[in-house]
Amino acid sequence: MIVLPDEKSLRSTFLKAIPYMMLAEMVQSLQDVIIQFFLARTVGVAGTAAYGIVYPLLALMIGLSSFLVVGVLTVFSRDMGAGEQDGAALHLSAGITWAFFIMGAFSALCILFRSELTALLGATGDESYLAVMSMDALTLGTLSGPGFCALSILLTVQFFAADNRRAILLAIQSILLEVAFTAAFSLLLCSVAGVLTGYTLSVYIALANVLLQVMLHKGKDGRREPWARLHPVPAFRHVSLIIRTGLPEMTAWGLYVAFAAIRNLYILRLSETDALAAVTLSEGINQIGELIVSAQFNIIVSMLGAAWAAGDRKWYDKTVRVVWKTSLSIGLSYSVLQAALAYPMIRLFMEESDAGSVVHMSLVILLFYSLGYVFYTANLVFTGTYESIGRLSYAHLDYLLEYFALYLGFMLLLGTVFGITGVWAAFPATEAATCLVNFCLAWKACGHFPRRLEDLGFGRKYVLKE
Questions:
Q1: Which pairs count as long-range contacts for 457-460, CB under 8 Å and 24+ apart, including other chains?
Q2: What torsion, rounded to 10 degrees, do the Cα atoms 405, 32, 112, 258 define?
Q3: CA torsion through residues 119, 122, 123, 128, sign
Q4: How many domains does the chain divide into?
Q5: What phi, psi does 161 have (nearest 5°)?
Q6: Is 318 exposed, middle or buried (0-12, 13-18, 19+ CB in 10 A)?
Q7: CA pair distance 428, 368, nearest whole angstrom
């Protein structure tokens, strides 16, 4: 896919990329949806709650993956924007090689200390009966990490593929394999271990399928594309830029894991297991929104990164304008759609007659998520901009506020005043407050009150020369 430097073409590129990037992101974001669906259907509330207990660590695994995926994609986009395909191939190979090192080490640590970790996260006392299922979820879930990360990297960089139809086919094949294997093992074993075994196997089978196809494919001119020149690159110097660039994503997920662990303990203190099951279920359903957000984020990073590396002032400004207009329109549309479809979506996962209180709380949570979604989208564009142009300190600050400091403060304040409902209300309050901070940073960067969308691109002071 070639990004053209006129506004109409840029908008077309963004919109056309969304279906593919969503499919690529579904391989990551549908992890929770697929697992939650089959846990709810074959194991029930206990399985969902057990998975929820170790979810902070599984979220950290996804965070490690996201940090590498975004780091590779950003550096890869800059290489492609500058016309350096050899550099793109080298950075892609280094990213995938180190994905296996880093994710494998994390999986080994979680398995080695699984008993202690599940107890620390809440599987003790009245919830001790969930311990065995939680350990199964942690062990099998983290084993999928290395393959999950490598597959996500490979599919995401296909944004730059000349043959977009082949890229779409690869993503669809991966999703179908995940669903099919998870469903088969869930029905055969009807346990947490069964659901997670099926999912983990599906990830490695999907990775083998994608690797085979991209390694054998050649471009129209007969030249092998960067992802067709993969080779092991263990030298740290080749991955150091990727790690620095993707580090804000690790900060975000690390902070969220800490927050989620505190939140889960706070929820159990305010309410009971049903509340924990509700937040776990609603977050699983909300992965559809996270899917759209993640797809947008990767497109933003790809387009802004390529425009930045090309060094064209007008191209960059037009890209910033298109990114903001398109992202906000998508965010507003999804916010309305999620609010309207929240209850039917919950009923797909769980019958009200089986767990009425879980259904009701999940509905309230999703409505609060919808309320804060537009602000969430705006913060997404800000952080995508920071990472694309190298303003990493701003990205770290954004995530510190959004995923921990403000979120925790609002949760404790509103939870104290309004009870369990206040915990759910903390999300829109946090996103609105973070958005205000980002707007003030943009004001500071451009030297005046932002009057145009280009003023939100931070390019005038930090990125490009006129």
A1: 457/304, 457/316, 457/317, 457/320, 457/385, 457/389, 458/385, 458/386, 458/389, 458/391, 458/394, 459/308, 459/313, 459/316, 459/317, 459/320, 459/389
A2: 10
A3: positive
A4: 1
A5: -70, 140
A6: buried
A7: 7
- Residue 444 token pair: 């500071």
Scan for tokens 């500071």, then name that residue.
444
- Tell me the C-alpha distance between 21 and 111, whole Å: 32
Cβ neighbours, 10 Å, residue 439: 15
Contact between 385 and 457 under an 8 Å Cβ cutoff? The reply is yes
In a domain, 1, yes or no: no
Residue in 113, 158, 172, 101 with CA at minimum distance from that of residue 138 = 113
In a domain, 2, yes or no: no
Q: Has residue 307 been placed in a domain?
A: yes
The three-point CA angle 278-137-403 to 5° equals 55
Query: Do residues 454 and 317 lie in contact, with contact meaning Cβ atoms separated by under 8 Å?
Result: yes
Q: How far apart are CA 206 and CA 110, in angstroms?
A: 24
Which residue range(s) make up the domain with 246?
7-462
Evaluate the CA torsion angle 112, 117, 119, 122 in order and state its sign. Answer: negative
Q: What share of the chain is helix, strand, coil (3-state, %, to 5)?
A: 85, 0, 15
Do residues 365 and 278 make contact, with C-beta atoms less than 8 angstroms apart? yes
> pLDDT 10s per residue in the chain (466 long)?
444 456 677 777 777 777 777 777 767 666 777 887 788 777 777 777 778 778 778 877 887 888 888 888 888 888 887 778 788 888 888 888 998 998 999 989 988 887 878 777 766 655 556 777 778 778 888 888 899 888 888 888 877 766 667 777 888 888 888 888 888 888 888 788 788 888 888 889 999 998 888 877 665 555 667 777 777 888 888 888 888 888 888 788 778 778 887 888 888 777 666 777 788 778 777 767 777 777 888 888 888 888 887 776 777 888 888 889 888 988 899 889 888 888 888 877 766 555 667 788 888 888 998 899 889 999 999 998 888 888 888 988 999 998 888 999 999 999 889 888 888 899 999 999 999 999 999 888 887 888 888 888 876 544 443 3
- Tell me 454's DSSP state: G
CB 84 within 8 A of CB 138: no
- DSSP secondary structure string for all residues of 132-167: HHHHHHHHHHHHTHHHHHHHHHHHHGGGG-S-HHHH
Please count the helices (runs of H) and the strands (runs of E) in the chain: 17, 0
Residue 330 one-letter amino acid: I
